[in-house]
Amino acid sequence: MGITEFSREDVIFADEDVLRDSYQPDDLIERDDELAAYQHALKPVIRGKQPRNLFVYGQTGVGKSLSTNMILDQLLTDQEQYDDLDLRVVSLVCKTLTSSYQVAVRLVNEFRDPGNKLSHRGYAPGAVYEFLWEELNQLENTHVLFVLDEIDSIGTDDDLLYELPRANDNGNVTGPKIGVIGISNDFTFRDNLSARVKDSLAEEELHFPPYDANQLRRILRQRAEDAFLDDVLTDDVIPLCAAFAGQESGSARHALKLLYKAGDLARERGEPPVTEDDVRQASELIEQGRVRDELESLPTQSHITLYAVWALAEEGLTPAKRSKIYERYTEAAQEIGADVKTDRTIHDRLSQLNLKGFLDVEERNEGLRGGSYYQYELDVQSDMVKQVLAAESRTADLFE
Fold first, then answer.
1. In CATH, which superfamily holds the domain spanning 32-207?
2. What torsion, rounded to 10 degrees, do the Cα atoms 308, 310, 311, 314 define?
3. pLDDT > 90 in the chain, percent
4. N or C: more exposed end of the chain, with fewer CB within 10 A?
5. Who's near 321: CB < 8 A, 6+ residues apart?
6. Under 8 Å between Cβ of 260 and 16
7. 211-296: which CATH number, 1.10.8.60, 3.40.30.10, 1.20.1090.10, 1.10.3720.10?
8. How is domain 298-399 classified at the CATH fold level?
9. pLDDT per residue over 58-103, tens digit each?
10. Claim: this prediction has a pTM higher than 0.85
């Protein structure tokens, strides 16, 4: 039929942007306890005192970043009534940054003019920290809060997470009072930090648990009220979206994506209502994309572990025992210059990959002679694993 005329007419959506990740609602429901704890942890700032350093963790899509943005927006608004308070917030997503050095360079450049930026290599780490202290000491702000999202990307190179939270205590910064908010999707990241970093960064810890189906239902109803035209959703659409997302991830992002896709299918059809069949079809269509997103969001060490299983599978050597996977993991980590974790740590990574549905595990028992052990193999498309890992900056070299 060729190209048709573009039109603003929409028989399904009133404002589809309400269902997008970037939308920030006026009220974040189902997170009252977490918001209260978050606000309490930041109250020293409004009093002009030293900020507490926070470690915020939980899986993707459970409200960590949204809560952070809402709390900090409120704090920045409320500070305006106090003449002796001048807070600056510096936010950085660390997804593509794999070391304390890279994060520190980016932070220095947050304060510098375009013609005076640091290059990403060529300086000693100590010199970069000195540049950062120099920039901070020149500020007229009373407080600076650094928000480091996806901070687990830096792995065990955690020097910055010791230096920055203690910048005032160590006398490196004598001007503004410094605070750090580290946000992580990786539950094990904190456990792998050095003891000195735990004491510095995790003065306060805030866990965002997954949503259950009832919570997701209320979240979807709140968004649907503004997102859809009246009476275009059948009664079973929101409960089914919430049930699917609650069973699979507990992620509001997943639930909203499912609801949006179901509406989009009805719009493509050209007529309401949005039905249960639309939800089921949407679930099938986005499953592959969801798996890819989950794979991409894994921390580097999990990517290397997954690569080890993938490489063995390509050679026809799976299901594989943990010892064989660890051997291949060690070779891969050394090849790309990543830290080599202990066998026990990689066992934990394998368990997490199994829980996420990326690996299948089978227990084998060969009696007194062979004992019992676990064997692992991929439980996700091999081609997808390769595509994701080949596109990641740290693991891309493994495919050259």
1. P-loop containing nucleotide triphosphate hydrolases (3.40.50.300)
2. 160
3. 74
4. N
5. 373, 374, 375, 376
6. yes
7. 1.10.8.60
8. Arc Repressor Mutant, subunit A (1.10.10)
9. 988 999 999 999 999 999 999 999 999 999 999 999 988 888 999 9
10. no
- Which tokens hold the place of 287? 């499953």
Residue with tokens 């106090």: 82
Domain locations along the chain: 32-207, 211-296, 298-399
pLDDT tens-digit map of 297-326: 899 999 999 999 999 999 999 999 999 999
Q: How far apart are CA 250 and CA 185, in angstroms?
A: 13
Quote the tokens at residue 326.
């660890």
